[in-house]
Design goal:
149 residues; mainly alpha; 60% helix; elongated
Length: 149
C-alpha cells in the first residue's frame, strides 16, 4: 500500500470511486463534525444509508397500503437530508441533480397516493329515512348556473 507524506494511505492505491467517496466524506465531516465524534465512519454511513434505501425500495415495490407510504416518506426524508448535505458542503448542482429529481418523483407519488378517492355514482347517495337522496353538494346547482331539466 502506498503512503502519503503524512503516513496516511494514498488515494492512488485505491479505485477512483472509493477515493472520490472518501474525499466527499471528509468534506461532509468538516461540515458536520458530530459524525466523527459519534464514531461514524464513511463505510458505516454509506452502508446504513444504502440499507435504508434498499429496504424502503423493497417495501414500496412489494407491500401495498400504508407501509408503502411510510417507506415513501422515509425515502423522501433521506433525499432531503442528502440535498441538505450537498448544499452545506457547496457541491455543484450536477453532483446532486439525481437526488433532486428522485425527490420530486417521491413527492409526486406521495401526493397522488394521499388524494381522496372519488366514490362511484351509486355510492354517492345518502340514505335518509330509508330513502336514497343525492348528496347536498351534488343536488344543488352550481352558483351562477341554471338547472335545466
Amino acid at each position: 500500500m502506498l503512503l502519503s507524506a503524512q503516513g496516511q494511505p494514498c488515494c492512488r492505491a485505491w479505485p477512483a470511486e472509493s477515493c472520490r467517496q472518501k474525499r466527499a466524506y471528509k468534506s461532509y465531516v468538516r461540515a458536520l463534525p458530530m459524525l466523527k465524534k459519534m464514531g461514524v465512519s464513511s463505510i458505516l454511513l454509506r452502508k446504513s444509508i444504502g440499507a435504508l434505501e434498499v429496504a424502503c425500495g423493497i417495501v414500496m415495490t412489494l407491500v401495498p397500503g400504508r407501509p408503502k407510504d411510510v417507506a415513501n416518506f422515509l425515502l423522501l426524508l433521506l433525499v432531503l437530508a442528502v440535498l441538505f448535505f450537498h448544499q452545506l458542503v457547496g457541491d455543484p448542482l450536477k453532483r446532486y441533480a439525481h437526488a433532486l429529481v428522485f425527490g420530486i418523483l417521491l413527492t409526486c407519488r406521495l401526493l397522488i397516493a394521499r388524494q381522496p378517492e372519488e366514490l362511484p355514482p351509486e355510492k354517492r347517495m345518502l340514505s335518509v329515512n330509508g330513502e336514497e337522496q343525492p348528496l347536498i353538494h351534488e343536488a344543488a346547482p352550481e352558483k351562477g348556473k341554471m338547472k335545466v331539466s
